[in-house]
Amino acid sequence: MSRPVRVRFAPSPTGPLHIGGVRTALYNYLFARRHGGKMILRIEDTDSQRFVPGAEEYIRESLRWCGIEIDEGVGVGGPHAPYRQSERREIYLKYALQLVDAGWAYYAFDTAEELDALRREAEARGAAFAYDHTVRERLATSLTLPADEVRRRIDRGDQWVIRFRMPENRIVRMDDLIRGHVEVNTSTLDDKVLYKSADALPTYHLANIVDDHLMEISHVIRGEEWLPSLPLHYLLYEAFGWQETQPAFAHLPLLLKPTGGGKLSKRDGDKMGFPVFPLFWQSPTGETARGYREDGYFPEAFVNMLALLGWNPGTEQELFTMQELVEHFSLDRVSKSGARFQPEKARWFNAQYMHRKSAEELAVLLQPILRAHGIEVSDERAGRAADIMKERAVLATDLWDLTSFFFRAPEAYEEKQAKKYWKGDNPAILRELRGVLASIDDFSLENTERIVHGWIQEKGYGTGQVMNTLRLALVGAGKGPGMYDVTSFIGREETLRRIDLLFERLAPAE
Ligand code: GLU
């Protein structure tokens, strides 16, 4: 195999990119990097009916967030520019006509009404309608009309399409890098439209094959939903005489619902409370969808999780940096069967990355959250607070709840906790503890712990009771880290102030 590796991600801008699409882009990228090849981004926007403004930007932003770099394509340029199919529209007609001339395709002049009538007729017979050789023989096409009539209709501006003339009863033999050898009889296939005069645009099939050829694509790695199109694509390469340079194909398994049955859909996400899109999305009509980024996931965790949905490294290793994925990735280890998406696993991956973050990295995450709550602190303090709590955090968005008490006194006291501890001797003991704390000069974690602990021992108090009462004052709830983490972080004055606040606000119950 001496051909340079060139792969492409070729999304249609019909809405936000589903995580299955991100995985396709990722596998293409890993494959390109693994083999020192090029990753191309081509936007397939020839279906003007389904075009959604903003979708292309969304796709590019998603790839950027994931760290999937584009070597050539939309937004980057390259030797085969333009890479947006709507900007390549002049290219395709010539190829469609080449197929007509060679007898591999034909003009069809049928109207929507004629097709509807044939569809109804088929349904009445209990058969599924397919535009195949039996149909094309009954309609006005360049196969049934004399050449001068075809010319006349085109010249007077009748609408036409060019359809592929599917051979009858031929076995198409195909090879897929994931599925192996596949054979299909062409009698099960219909005559797909390749080009439409109405908007002077090719359909997906024609534009896709022509561009893969012109862009010298070596491997087509795409979702399983395109497998049914593969026989047509093989035949198109044959019809053009491009078999020599035909790319190798790899069809990736579907992402399945968490329950296993069926393809993962947006509705599953809505029902079960997880995003199926990388980024938050708002459609031009105002519909919104959650995204992993805005939900507090890290791109490296998201990418790691996606990489293992359908591919396995053959070892027990689960955590991979992008670089490690590049080193280990191979299509041989992509499975044939669907990969079940597990939201819990996505959270698990994120937690692993959270736990490994340094205080400096955590500060970068926490600072904007603090600022949004009107809190200005040094990076050092933000990082330290988050570092103390990171083992309990899963998402970046958890950090506020987990660390807010480091930066501000409780505004209220959790009822259950107050009921449990703000009674009996505890308030009096807390007052005593206040005196002990007020006398400590070195408020470091170790020193405070040593002195308070000695005092508890001496008095014979219950450590749990004392600490939880203090917790009520400092945190206002039953959560949080060890109390000496909090006292040493907030310092003596703030510790005493919070104790006083509790006394001011709550009259102790007997
Ligand atoms: N435009 C197609 C899509 O939206 C590309 C399929 C392919 O990669 O051939 O998925």
Main beta sheet: 4 strands, antiparallel
Q: Give the strand order, joined by hyphens, for the main sheet.
A: 4-5-8-9
Distance between the termini: 84 Å
Spatial shape: elongated
Content of β-strand: 5-15%
Secondary structural class: alpha/beta
Q: What is the helix content?
A: 40-55%
Question: Which hetero compounds are present in the coordinates?
Answer: glutamic acid
Rounded mean pLDDT is 96
Residue windows where pLDDT falls under 50 for at least 5 positions: none
By DSSP, the count of extended strands is: 15
Distinct helical segment count: 20
Write down the Rg: 32 Å
Summary tags:
510 residues, 20 helices, elongated, alpha/beta, binds glutamic acid
Describe the structure.
It contains 20 helices and 15 strands. β13 (about 280) and β14 (about 290) form a beta hairpin. Helix content is about 45%, strand content about 10%. α10 (about 300-305) packs across α12 (about 345-355), α17 crosses α19 (about 465-475) and α17 (about 425-440) crosses α20. A four-stranded antiparallel β-sheet has the order 4-5-8-9. Strands 1-2-3 form a three-stranded parallel β-sheet. With about 500 residues, the chain is of the alpha/beta class. It is elongated and about 110 Å long. The mean pLDDT is about 95. The structure holds glutamic acid. Glutamic acid binds next to α7 and β10. Glutamic acid (GLU) binds next to α7 and β10.
